[in-house]
Amino acid sequence: MSQNATMDEFEALLNESLEIDTPNEGSVVKGKVIAIEAGQAIIDVGYKMEGRVELKEFANPGEAPQIEVGDEVEVYLDRVENARGEAVISREKARREEAWDRLEAAYAKEERVEGAIFGRVKGGFTVDLGGAVAFLPGSQVDVRPVRDAGPLMGLKQPFQILKMDRRRGNIVVSRRAILEESRAEQRAEVIANLSEGQVVDGVVKNITEYGAFVDLGGVDGLLHVTDMAWRRVNHPSEILSIGETVKVQVVKINKETHRISLGMKQLQSDPWDSVESKFALGSVHTGRVTNITDYGAFVELEPGVEGLVHVSEMSWTKKNVHPGKIVSTSQEVDVMVLEIDTAKRRVSLGLKQTMRNPWEVFAETHPVGTVIEGEVKNITEFGLFVGLENDIDGMVHLSDLSWEQRGEDAIQDYRKGDMVKAAVTEVDTDKERISLSIKALDADTFSDAVDGVKRGSIVTVTVTAIEDGGVEVEYNGMKSFIRRSDLARDRADQRPERFQVGDHVDVRVTNVDSKTRKLGVSIKAREIAEEKEAVEQYGSSDSGASLGDILGAALKGDQ
């Protein structure tokens, strides 16, 4: 009887124990720290099970473990029993599961989460979000590129979850989104208290090629390089340095984009207000070359006032030369004011106008007929260019090279670099041209020979050569040729052999060509002219007199 009762009690106890729910593997359970030894915490998770957890799993990144005997903690149950009969548990996995639940809730509500940057990986950083590890891209660290993230490491700060995938264990967070949101709120508050035209103090935060960003107390404004000073500023670093406190004026506020434009020069008087009174047209001033371009050079007349010397106004003689070969940056030069346009804030200057026109100087010092000597600078198809003083050239045309030779032939005797003498024949200061003549240095034998001779004149020539086509004759040293057809009026007498070298013959001048330097003569033309004159004086064939009678009478009259 008693034995049956004992068996019933044992069966009841067994059933009761089976009815007790045992924890499932892969779940989070509560446990109590019962001992700490060898860098591990021994935790009783109930159900007559104990497990071990490394102390480092109880520490936040960069901090010491915070765990004591008697503390209640949640751990993750991997397995109910291992080879040593202990439960396999993990505090880190428990924190991760807890964190994922919390982070998913925050992500759904678009709430910020707290975390700490604890490591650097390719492309960004790792962040501990209270048990879950997230990735922070480098572009999401700050609103501006961060060169040194050291000061941010280990600091607890808010982050915004951009993306998370629990199945893959991926979380992407942003610190930049938090800063931009905070900055936007701060910017809106500061901008609300600013107005265009207001003068404020700011601190230079960053300098670029086009300007500087100035912190106005929570909001940045752009101070463009053109608004820093009335004068030309090549780079903002010339007048500003990072960390410097400056006084600026709010030039413009864009309420939609929250962009603020600032100016420093607006706090100074505009030098262009007095340009016309200070720099009268035609006046000469000393300025400093500030910039050189392909089309000219900019010259600063005073701080804030610059003028352009166009390349065409730089030199009287250097026409196709880059301005950089005439002036250099920072050089002081004398310039003349040619034009002022206050509306466009432009001043046209001239450099060559401060020097005398070299062609005018040459004309004064070298009147027509003056003999000069110079080097042949260039040879062209139409003449020689000879270098003269003050970097100007004179030209000897083909027709002014020689009295005796054709210009095309005479120019073959010259080479670049030759020194030649020539006479000044014309100076045109308006067209900047100087005409020279080499042949003018010698007497014009043709002009001297034919002096007083004109077309129709009767002159005596000397036969110098007999040819089949005619005879060569000479008059005052000038050679001429009488063609066979011009040797006589009658065809029967048009024979060159009837003349001998040395004969003196009267001829009629048919042409005097100074350009070709040729004297045209004809015996036939003389005979025809004599016949015509005799007819006019002594009768005509119409009166019944023969030509022989008329000529005989003419001869008697001459006698």
Automatic annotation (TrEMBL):
Protein task: Binds mRNA; thus facilitating recognition of the initiation point. It is needed to translate mRNA with a short Shine-Dalgarno (SD) purine-rich sequence.
> What name does the UniProt record give this protein?
30S ribosomal protein S1
**What does the UniProt keyword field contain?**
Repeat, Ribonucleoprotein, Ribosomal protein, RNA-binding
So what family is this one in? Belongs to the bacterial ribosomal protein bS1 family.
What SUPFAM superfamilies does its record include?
Answer: Nucleic acid-binding proteins
Q: Which InterPro entries match?
A: NA-bd_OB-fold, Ribos_protein_bS1-like, Ribosomal_bS1, Ribosomal_protein_S1-like, S1_domain
The cellular component terms of Gene Ontology attached to this UniProt record, alphabetical and capped at eight, are: ribosome
Q: Which CDD domains match?
A: S1_RPS1_repeat_ec1_hs1, S1_RPS1_repeat_ec2_hs2, S1_RPS1_repeat_ec3
Q: Which organism is it from?
A: Thioclava sediminum
Q: Where is the S1 motif domain?
A: 26-92, 110-176, 197-265, 282-352, 369-439, 456-524
Q: Matching NCBIfam families, A to Z? A: PRK06299.1-2, PRK06299.1-5, rpsA
Any single Pfam family the record assigns to this protein: S1
